[in-house]
Design brief:
19 strands, 12 helices, 7-stranded mixed sheet, 4-stranded antiparallel sheet, 418 residues, alpha+beta, 23% strand
């Protein structure tokens, strides 16, 4: 029996709130399937399952906020015997009251609560830690709240409903929605920035960056890359494309970085448990500023193996979903190196801070025209871009970092090979 846990969606995430289950007990699930929606400081994220099997039990109710790695559900592996033998035993005791014909159902029901008190809120109800904190904040007595979580547990949603004077309108006790997709889930996907708090996000980012600067021995390198060939290549390619399908310089920077990582794989991976662990592929995070403040850096997977038009479509899709909601947990959890590009904001250079547990981050400034000495020694005005690298001295050194920047520059000089 496997456990599906609250995922860690980056170094700046400590806990998440379950918004909704998109599966129910008995449903079959497969790798990559979205099974839940979780609220973090970065908005609502669609959480994927990473194993195949059958949902045996949902351990959290919507509204509960729990730390990362907290078990959320039990997943029964294919071929594994269901734990149905245990639930099959309770029915016989339940049949005993029914076998007494002289007792009315209402009397039997009234007699049932004392031995096993499921919803008895007045006698020490089950309360999630988040719900208890919320009740203290709102000044709501727990003994007046009807719990709708598993086994009658009181959730954050129950507390807030009681605070609004709507405890009587609380939903029927059920740990999960009736089907794998519901109108609420569609609403979350349409406007998942519900509850997005830029202040909380900024706090989370600051905590992660403070940890990075405190624990990671950064070293910095930078170089200037001439972009005339690359921009001429883009102009030629885009002549034959409609505006929505035209390539932007960002896609060249993305692909050149990925190909450079093939040559210097020591920068593509994670520092975990006191050592370097190579990434499973070249999955590049792209820093995206959000409306209202803050940023996320979701990953595009296998960047080195994808053609430019496909990468451009993936980048547009990623930026759109990041700003409107709808990112998936895998996109936030497995970037092997992150890129920040401030070119469109006008900054000519950026010195990044590594996003742990990654071991490097690349920054691109604006493409600007500057004096340049050409191959013949003449002084000309050429478009150039500043490329910077922040890297972890535990995993690499300046020699490797210099090779990496040189590889990026080389690929940008040969844009037709990207």
């Amino acid at each position: 029996m496997g456990l599906f846990r609250m995922p860690s969606l980056g170094a700046d995430m400590e806990a998440g709130t379950l918004v909704e289950w998109l599966v129910k007990p008995g449903d079959s699930v497969k790798r990559g399937q979205v099974v839940a929606v979780v609220e973090t400081q970065k908005g609502a994220i669609e959480v994927e399952c990473f194993e195949e099997g059958t949902v045996e039990e949902l351990l959290l109710a919507p509204g509960q906020k729990v730390p990362v790695e907290t078990p959320m559900a039990r997943i029964r592996a294919p071929g594994e015997v269901p734990a149905a033998a245990a639930p099959a035993a309770p029915p016989p005791p339940a049949a005993a009251p029914a076998a007494a014909p002289r007792e009315a159902p209402s009397v039997a029901k009234a007699a049932a609560p004392p031995p096993p008190p499921p919803p008895a809120p007045t006698a020490g109800p089950k309360v999630s830690p988040a719900a208890r904190r919320r009740a203290l904040e709102l000044g709501v007595p727990l003994d007046r709240i009807h719990g709708t979580g598993p086994d009658g547990a009181i959730t954050v949603a129950d507390v807030e409903a009681a605070a609004r004077g709507a405890a009587a309108e609380a939903p029927t006790p059920a740990p999960a929605p009736a089907g794998p997709v519901s109108p609420k889930a569609e609403a979350v996907r349409a406007a998942p920035r519900r509850g997005f708090d830029p202040v909380e996000m900024r706090k989370a980012i600051a905590a992660a960056m403070s940890r990075s600067k405190r624990e990671i021995p950064h070293y910095y390198l930078a170089t200037t890359v001439e972009m005339a060939r690359a921009l001429a290549f883009l102009e030629a390619v885009n002549r034959e494309r409609p505006p929505p399908e035209r390539l932007l310089p960002a896609v060249l920077l993305l692909k050149a970085t990925a190909l450079a990582l093939r040559e210097v794989p020591e920068l593509n991976g994670f520092w975990v448990e006191g050592g370097f662990r190579p990434g499973p592929g070249i999955h590049l995070g792209w820093a995206i500023s959000l409306r209202g403040g803050g940023l996320v850096a979701p990953a595009i997977h296998d960047v080195d193996a994808r053609p430019l038009p496909e990468l451009m479509a993936a980048l547009r899709d990623l930026v759109g979903r990041a700003r409107n909601g709808g990112l998936k947990s895998s996109e936030l959890a497995d970037a092997t190196l992150t890129i920040t590009s401030l070119g469109e904001r006008g900054a000519e250079a950026v010195l990044p801070v590594i996003y742990p547990p990654q071991v490097a981050m690349v920054g691109f400034g604006a493409i600007v025209r500057r004096p340049w000495v050409d191959d013949e020694g003449g002084l000309v005005a050429r478009p150039v871009v500043q490329v910077s690298l922040a890297a972890d001295h535990r995993a690499s050194d300046g020699h490797l970092g210099s090779r990496f920047l040189a590889a990026i520059a080389d690929h940008l000089q040969r844009p037709e090979s990207l």
